[in-house]
Amino acid sequence: MVKQILFMLLSLTNLNAMSQTYETVEYQSSPIGEKLCFAIQWGEFAEFQELIMQNHDSINDRDKLGNTPLIMATIKENPLLVHILLENHADPLITTPYGQTARKLAQHLHAFKTSHMEDINNDYKTLVSKKVKTEKELRYMVHVLEEIERMSSSLTNLEEIIQQLDSAH
Question: Which of 27, 151, 41 has the alpha carbon at shortest distance from 99?
Answer without folding.
Answer: 27
